[in-house]
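Writing this down once: the sequence line spells out the residues, with the fold written below as integer tokens. This is how one looks:
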Amino acid sequence: MRRARPLAIITLAVAAATVLAGCVGSSTLPQAPSGSSDQNATINVGSIYEPQNLDNTAGGGQGVTEALNGNVYEALYKLGDDGKVTPLLAASDKHSDDGLTYTFTLQKGVTFHSGQPLTAADVKYSIEKVLGPDSQSARKSDLAVISKVAAPDDSTVVVTLSKPSISLIYNLSYVWVIQRDAKNLKTTEDGTGPYTVSGWKQGSSLTLTRFDKYWGTPAANKQVVYHYYKDATAENNALLSGQLDIVTGEQSPDALSQFENNPQYKVNNGSSTTKLLLAFNDKKAPFDKTAVRVAITRAIDRQALLKSIWGDYGTVTGSMVPPTDPWYEDLSGVYPFDQAKAKQELTAAGYPNGFSFTLDTPNYDPHPQAAAFIKQQLSKIGVEVKINIITPDEWYTKIYQNHDFAATMQEHVNDRDVVWYGNPDFYWGYDNPAVTALINKSEQAGTADEQTADLKQANEIIVRDAASDWLYLYPQIVVASTSLSGYPINGLNSQFYVYNIKKQG
């Protein structure tokens, strides 16, 4: 989910991105232009996702992941732009034969921005922070399998599980390692990454400055400034006027032609994991009936919706699973667009004259536009949609915390998040014991192939149940000046590593 989202194998089978005319589609970082790069350059980055605070366990939203993950804070493991998980602050790991005990040895010589050395006690504190009662981390439930964290010495962390978890290493890539005595983490930071936060003008910009005592390879630039915009037009104008060097994710496809036909810019079409959902409250009438959810799904022309917003970009997948997940299948044909059949299904479900419901809709693009499209489509089968525009904060409280809704729209940005349909207490209330059993079984699988088979089966059931309507998968379009190289182009979990970006001197 974006903005208000409660931040949602070891290798991922990354699908090759479609190559569009004038676009680059791969996980390979853009090559350096001819000429030397400026190691003291400032990289100006445009984004519409400002952090709501700087703590990713306190509802910081997509913006805090985009700016701070991997740049300011690091984890034991790193999820790369190519979809692979590799060791970062963990120098090595081993696990017991029963899969219940993991022992991690930490990298040597790592220093926090405060000057304190990294110790196992900091890692213990950071994991327990994610699992704490006030944590809003999207991976909190996934990591609940951890029953104990110990730090027997400064360089060793021992994690004990209540049951085997094939995804533990992957899930630990979400756990930022924070200095255990750090305070005021909503407005300040104390990480181990290649940058420090040197300034935050809320509502305007966030500045990262190269950390000279970084334990790894120094950042390729001296400073990165994230500039925040309320709309895509202002952001694009700033890029065209030279105020920005790069835009993390293009939100105005109609504006792409001005960059595609301009030799000063490169348009990169990468792989996204962001899904736009029409999420039903599956515990609340009329959406507690599978037949009703199926009818609504059939009544919405998802391909037409996608085209109305993104033109020729993006994909209709028909499920929560993006192509970058190993268990991906194209399920867009399970309930194809058919309003006549949708009307018949509504009648069979006991609603021959339709019904009305309120659609709680976030107030930022593309939600209002998509909600208006849905309202128009559903009116043709006798369903009246009342659109209620709400802020991200209202969405989090009303929908995510209190489950006080009939249907809502939201973006889910993470990969591997189909597993949330195995949790009956998640905000959409989907409860199918067979799915929950398969998802639990997949997590205790002995091999990645077994895990993939279980999750494919679970996802097929979820789609047949029309647990939600997965409207489309966003494209990931990064637009940059041709003077830049080394920037990421895929949209895995909204992260945006900036430390490899070089600017031609």
About this structure: The domain at 13-272+475-505 is CATH 3.40.190.10 (D-Maltodextrin-Binding Protein; domain 2). The longest helix spans residues 448-464. The CA atoms of residues 77 and 150 lie 18 Å apart.
